[in-house]
Amino acid sequence: MISLTLAEIAEIVGGRLHRTDGAPTVTGTVEFDSRRLTPGGLFVALPGENVDGHSFAAAAVAGGAAGVLAAREVDAPAVIAPPLPPGQAHARSVALTGDTDGSGAAVLAALGRLARHVVVELSRRGLIVVGVTGSSGKTSTKDLIAQLLEPLGPTVAPPGSFNNELGHPWTALRADETTRHLVLEMSARGPGHIAELATVAPPRIGVVLNVGTAHIGEFGSREGIARTKGELVEALPEDGVAVLNVDDPLVAEMAGRTRARVVGVGERPDAEIRAEDITLDEHARASFQLVTPGGRAPVRLPLYGEHHVGNALAAAAVALELGSGVDEVAARLSAVERRSARRMEVITRADGVTVLNDSYNANPESVRAALKTLASMTRGEKGGRSWAVLGVMGELGADSVSAHDEIGRLAVRLDIGRLVVVGEDAAAMHHGASHEGSWGEESVLVPDTEAAIRLLREQVEPGDVVLVKASKVAALWRVAEALVADQEDDK
Question: Global pTM?
Answer without folding.
Answer: 0.92
